[in-house]
């Protein structure tokens, strides 16, 4: 069985980190055929939009995508390509596993968290209008259906992965309808999973407690905006955005992506760390059931990081992208 995967190289360091990731997957004999598609800056030049229809169609057809970082054109009136992709493909699950990797400066020891973010509603629905001059209303959407499908996804993930407890984090005291609907959906679906410990707390309490002791948390479930903010906080606990993978998953397609940006300050210099995109590609392999290859790549990455002699500048080393990539490929055979 081979998988055809839409490959969006992305902008800035995108081509460097996607190139490195593809080399490692090929060396690990991952059964993937890449289907390149444009988005971001290249798509703006070619099609005048950052997420063209041709790319969305490619992902719909292949049902799988791997995406490098995209620059967000500011002040052009276009939706961010990332937001457009999640909405157009209905990728309602934002999945971000956050773990401590060896030799990552500033990482909280023993961190092992999974954050689920509802990707399609909330303030990201983009419903905003000026009621009277100087008064703007931004609408937060929240449906029971969206709350239920993300909650079910999280519970099923926990069941398969042996995860023990989940916190649904909200501001239901302030937004009893919108956040209350999300919390009610969590409780309704949770009733079908009595073997999983279920708790809820204010997102403000979560923000206080996470940096004090993240080991108290296992799985987090949040609406779109809280999830966006808290997922970056969690990445900070793991040592930064450069080491954290991510996925956007829907019923008909899944796109895996590093969560860092295009790093224009180091683009084209051979300094980029491909780790986050590589770990995202590993999530793709797990998603399609290629567990053996995924764990072989993961072991190789851990060996290289633990050894510490081929790590990139962002992690305190001086290896180039190519040197790190070569070290992981060598470690595949160890
Ligand atoms: P950024 O993540 O691109 O850079 C922040 C800092 O981290 C920079 O010093 C950069 O060199 C470093 N860095 C990031 N990834 C790295 C990697 N893989 N290896 C080594 N160093 C790395 O964030 P910034 O500067 O705020 O955004 C730049 C552009 O990226 C903007 O146009 C923004 O819209 C876009 N962006 C795109 C995202 C996506 O497509 N998922 C996410 C975040 C930002």
Bound molecules: 1,4-dihydronicotinamide adenine dinucleotide
**Biggest sheet: strand arrangement:** 2-1-3-12-11-4-5-10-8-9
Could you please say which CATH topology of the largest domain applies here? Isopropylmalate Dehydrogenase
Helix content: 40-55%
Q: CATH superfamily of the largest domain, called what? A: Isopropylmalate Dehydrogenase
Q: Tell me about the biggest sheet?
A: 10 strands, mixed
CATH architecture of the largest domain: 3-Layer(aba) Sandwich
Q: Label the overall shape.
A: globular
CATH class assignment of the largest domain: Alpha Beta
- The secondary-structure element order is EHEHHEHEEEEHEHEHEHEEHHH
Q: Give the number of domains.
A: 2
Given helix and strand content, the structural type is alpha/beta
Our count of helices gives 11
Mean pLDDT level: 94
Instruction: List segments where confidence is low: pLDDT < 50 over at least 5 consecutive residues.
Output: none
Rg is: 20 Å
Strand content: 15-25%
Distance between the termini: 26 Å
Total beta-strand segments: 12
Structure description:
This protein has two domains: 1-92 and 240-334, Isopropylmalate Dehydrogenase; 108-238, 3-Layer(aba) Sandwich (Isopropylmalate Dehydrogenase), CATH 3.40.718.10. 41% of the residues lie in helices and 19% in strands. It is built from eleven helices and twelve strands. The model has no long low-confidence stretch (mean pLDDT 94). 1,4-dihydronicotinamide adenine dinucleotide binds at residues 13, 17, 69-72, 82, 241-242, 257, 259-266, 272-273, 276, 314.
């Amino acid at each position: 069985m081979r998988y055809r995967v839409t490959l969006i190289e992305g902008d800035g360091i995108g081509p460097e980190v996607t190139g490195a990731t593809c080399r490692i997957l090929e060396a690990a004999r991952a059964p993937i055929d890449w289907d390149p598609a444009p988005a971001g800056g290249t798509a703006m030049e070619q099609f005048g939009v950052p997420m063209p229809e041709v790319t969305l169609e490619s992902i719909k057809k292949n049902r799988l995508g791997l995406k490098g970082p995209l620059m967000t054109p500011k002040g052009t009136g276009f939706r961010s390509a990332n937001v457009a992709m999640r909405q157009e493909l209905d990728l309602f699950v934002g999945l971000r596993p956050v773990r401590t990797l060896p030799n990552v400066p500033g990482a909280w020891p023993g961190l092992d968290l999974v954050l689920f973010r509802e990707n399609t509603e909330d303030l990201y629905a983009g419903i905003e209008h000026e009621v009277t001059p100087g008064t703007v209303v931004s609408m937060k959407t929240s449906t029971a259906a969206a709350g239920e499908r993300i909650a079910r996804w999280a519970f099923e993930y926990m069941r398969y992965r042996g995860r023990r407890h989940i916190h649904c984090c909200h501001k239901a005291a302030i937004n009893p309808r919108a956040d209350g609907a999300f919390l009610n959906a969590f409780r309704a679906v949770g009733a079908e999973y009595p073997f999983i410990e279920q708790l809820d707390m204010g997102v403000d309490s979560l923000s206080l407690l996470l940096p004090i002791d993240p080991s108290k948390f296992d799985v987090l479930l949040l609406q779109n905006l809280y999830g966006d903010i808290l997922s970056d906080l969690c990445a900070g606990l793991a040592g930064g955005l450069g080491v954290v993978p991510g996925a956007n998953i829907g019923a008909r397609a899944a796109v895996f992506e590093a969560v860092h940006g295009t790093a224009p300050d180091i683009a084209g210099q051979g300094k980029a760390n491909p780790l986050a995109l590589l770990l995202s590609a590993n999530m793709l392999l797990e998603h399609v059931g290629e567990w053996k290859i995924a764990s072989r790549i993961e072991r190789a990455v851990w060996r290289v990081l633990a050894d510490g002699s081929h790590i990139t500048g962002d992690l305190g080393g001086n290896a180039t992208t190519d040197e790190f990539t070569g070290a992981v490929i060598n470690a595949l055979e160890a």
